[in-house]
Design goal:
Layout: H1 15-20, H2 25-38, H3 40-48, E1 59-62, E2 70-73, E3 76-77, H4 79-92, E4 96-101, E5 107-111, H5 112-128, E6 136-140, H6 145-157, E7 160-163, H7 170-179, E8 184-188, E9 191-193, E10 196-198, H8 200-208, E11 216-220, E12 237-239, H9 240-243, E13 256-257, E14 261-267, E15 275-280, H10 281-295, E16 303-306, H11 313-325, E17 329-333, H12 344-352, E18 356-359, H13 361-370, E19 385-389, H14 395-405, E20 412-415, E21 449-452, E22 461-466, E23 476-477, H15 481-488, E24 501-505, E25 511-516, E26 520-523, E27 526-529, H16 530-537, E28 543-553, E29 557-566, H17 574-587, E30 596-600, H18 613-620, H19 635-646
Parallel strand pairs: 4-17, 6-7, 6-8, 7-14, 8-11, 11-12, 16-17, 16-18, 18-19, 19-20, 29-30
Antiparallel strand pairs: 1-2, 3-13, 4-5, 9-10, 14-15, 15-23, 21-22, 22-24, 24-25, 26-27, 28-29
Helix pairs in contact: 2-3, 4-5, 4-11, 5-6, 7-8, 10-11, 13-14, 18-19
Bound molecules: 5'-O-[(S)-ethoxy(hydroxy)phosphoryl]adenosine (WTA).
5'-O-[(S)-ethoxy(hydroxy)phosphoryl]adenosine binds at residues 267, 312-314, 389-392, 414-419, 440, 499-501, 513, 516, 522, 527.
């Protein structure tokens, strides 16, 4: 495997940062890391002491039924309690938990006490609707406080939330709702995006029309200023504000068992069917708490801002659970980075005096393209730490971020992790690790990575593996334990977790992530399985076969190129192209649209009929083709190359 970069400049944290950091200097990091591997149970028991437990655990880790690991077995706890009640008891009740800003500029401020009150009231409203512990609830909301409130209200009463990013289509909602037999959907009439109102309720209505399991739809009103057409179905739909109007302010947090399901979050894999990743209570609680504390070096007076949507794992862990457990103040923003203009993010940082800023490389690349003028003139001196997540960051974007946003003063934590890992796995420690542009560097405490060949030999560049279980790890794929084992644990005979990324270790023992080794593509940090698009295309009556590949994209990191074989005698023109795009919008969502669709009479295949994606990728990148001698029909490649250059 080729390395993406040979960047070797080192950027140590400033001495001021090191002095005040939770983890001060490389020696401190190394000592604690060694301890965490030598005595993982001791390490994770100590970490859990900061949190509230109704009942302590009997064992920290139970590996007797691997890979179905159990953490903190025997304990009872509640994540909403640890995010809210615990902080209020510690005297933080009047501290701002969330400074919220809507895209049109409207604002709301919620202290820990107010957030607690809203969560308790909504939790009571959910109970009044008959929702019970273990019931699954889909949440399809814009980035408004009710999104965090709904998540925490579910956690409070032990209902399992399944947040669906509000860019997904009606068909995606349907598939997720049916897969987890969701009995309730919490949505909004709409949400703002680039000045427009997205009509969310209409999408939900279409999505759940054929889902008999959905008995309740609760609708948050966002469109006071711009009323949205929002027909309410009698007996099924109710308004959030009406439900919370006459319920009690008190709601005792449910005592949850350690391995009780906390949430489901659907993510893409290598088949056409997204997986319902399962996260449970106690382990995720400790891991989200501890990674937030150390990786963001959280302190009492920080103002933290993560620009992700709660619809993705980053928002679950590093907007809601990990951050609130640490009792800090954060900013939550509803809309687009370029509305009303490209300076919006920097205006928000200046306005709220944000000290920790966590965003995606794709956003950084977009800002670079929009130009420095949006940044210069803004007072960003409140910033002390920057982070990136979701995809590899190219050194050029890293350097721009470091200079323009961080004023060469702020450490950058490039955090590698996944929906499945629940929290950070590889990341610099901001007050310790000298960073390198584009490198996720070193493991978090308790995480033991290895780089292996297919047959399990340790190598310098190869496939990333994780040797030890960790508390935030996924516990399964909803309804499909076999797929869980096959996908993550079979590659090296059940010994290691297989994340699906390639990696390289350098001379400093730093790990560089080289991108996915499977057919998963990261478009603007959104994870998309190429098989999902392929299975949509082949539903078209004129399509015989299709293969989708990811190629480098200047802003999005990766873009999708679709190769589509049309049934002989059928037209393949712009009309078909438009129909295929419309199918993607309907089945997945607009964010999964391919950059280009190329038609051809066949696809390059081996003699045994396997599509050679490597060759398709080379064609799509306009590269010299490697070895094509194993192809059944080398002529196909010429046709495709011609097509590529023409279109
Ligand atoms: C990729 C997002 C390089 C990786 C938290 C992983 C990264 C997938 C990084 C998970 C990073 C995430 N550097 N690649 N810092 N962070 N990735 O589940 O390919 O949406 O497997 O979780 O994103 O995407 P997911």
């Amino acid at each position: 495997m080729e390395s993406v970069s040979h960047e070797n400049r080192l950027f140590p944290p400033t001495s001021e940062f090191v002095e005040n950091a939770h983890i001060s200097g490389m020696d401190a990091y190394k000592a604690m890391y060694v301890k965490s591997l030598e005595d993982p149970e001791g390490f994770w028991a100590e970490a859990a002491q900061d949190l509230h437990w109704f009942k302590p655990w009997d064992s920290v880790l139970d590996a007797s039924n691997a890979p179905f690991y159990k953490w903190y077995d025997g304990s009872r706890t509640n994540l909403s309690y640890n995010c809210l009640d615990r902080n209020i008891e510690a005297g933080l009740g009047n501290k701002v938990a969330i400074h919220w800003e809507g895209e049109p500029g409207d604002t709301r401020e919620l202290t820990y006490k107010q957030l607690h009150l809203e969560v308790c009231r909504f939790a009571n409203a959910l109970k009044a609707r008959g929702l019970q512990k273990g019931d699954r609830v889909a949440i399809y909301l814009p980035m408004i406080p009710e999104l965090a409130i709904a998540v925490l209200a579910c956690a409070r009463i032990g209902a399992v939330h399944s947040v669906i990013f509000a860019g997904f289509s009606a068909d995606s909602i349907r598939d997720r709702v049916l897969d987890s037999e969701t009995c309730m959907v919490i949505t909004g009439d709409g949400g703002y995006r680039r000045g427009k109102m997205l009509e969310l309720k209409k999408i939900v209505d279409e999505g759940v029309a054929s889902c008999a399991c959905v008995k309740d739809v609760i609708v948050v009103k966002r469109g006071d200023e711009h009323p949205v057409d929002c027909p309410m179905q009698d007996g099924r739909d109710s308004w959030y504000h009406e439900l919370v109007a006459d319920v009690s302010d008190d709601c005792t947090a449910e005592e949850m068992e350690a391995e009780d399901l906390l949430f489901l979050l659907y993510t893409s894999g290598t088949t056409g069917k997204p997986k319902g990743i399962m996260h449970t209570t106690a382990g995720y609680q400790v891991f989200s708490y501890l990674t937030s504390k150390y990786v963001f070096d959280l302190k009492a007076d920080d103002v933290y801002w993560c620009t992700a949507d709660v619809g993705w794992i980053t928002g679950h862990t590093y907007i809601v659970y990990g951050i609130l457990q640490n009792g800090v103040t954060q900013v939550m923003y509803e809309g687009a980075p370029n509305h009303p203009d490209e300076g919006r993010f920097w205006e928000i940082i200046e306005k709220y005096k944000v000290s920790i800023f966590y965003t995606a490389p794709t956003a950084i690349r977009a800002f670079m393209k929009w130009g420095d003028k949006w940044v210069t003139g803004r007072d960003l001196s409140s910033l002390r730490l920057l982070g990136t997540v979701g995809e590899p960051i190219n050194p050029e974007a890293w350097i721009w971020y470091h200079k323009m946003i961080g004023a060469e003063r702020c450490p950058i934590v490039d955090t590698w992790w996944q929906t499945e890992t629940g929290g950070h796995m590889l990341t610099p420690m901001p007050g310790a690790t000298p960073t390198k542009p584009g490198c996720a560097t070193t493991p978090f405490f308790g995480i033991e990575p290895a780089i292996l060949t297919d047959d399990g030999k340790e190598v310098e560049a190869g496939i990333l593996a994780i040797k030890k279980p960790w508390p935030g790890m996924l516990r399964g794929i909803y309804g499909d334990p076999q797929r869980f084992k096959d996908t993550y644990w079979c590659k090296w005979g059940g010994k290691y977790y297989f994340p699906g990324d390639g990696a390289r270790r350098d001379e400093h023992d730093y790990i560089w992530i080289l991108g996915r080794v499977d057919d998963v593509v990261n478009v603007s940090g959104h994870r998309i399985g190429t098989a999902e698009l392929e299975s949509v295309f082949v539903e078209h009556k004129d399509v015989a076969e299709s293969a989708v590949v990811g190629v480098p994209h200047e802003i999005k990191g990766q873009g999708l190129i679709a190769f589509v074989t049309v049934i002989e005698g059928r037209d393949h023109d712009d009309h078909l192209r438009k129909e295929l795009i419309a199918m993607i919008d309907k089945s997945i969502g607009k964010f999964a649209r391919p950059e280009r669709i190329l038609f051809s009479s066949d696809l390059p295949k081996t003699r045994s009929g396997k599509i050679m994606r490597r060759i398709l990728r080379d064609i799509a990148e306009g590269k010299e083709l490697g070895n094509t001698t194993t192809l059944a029909d080398p002529g196909v490649v010429e046709e495709l190359q011609e097509q590529f250059l023409k279109s």
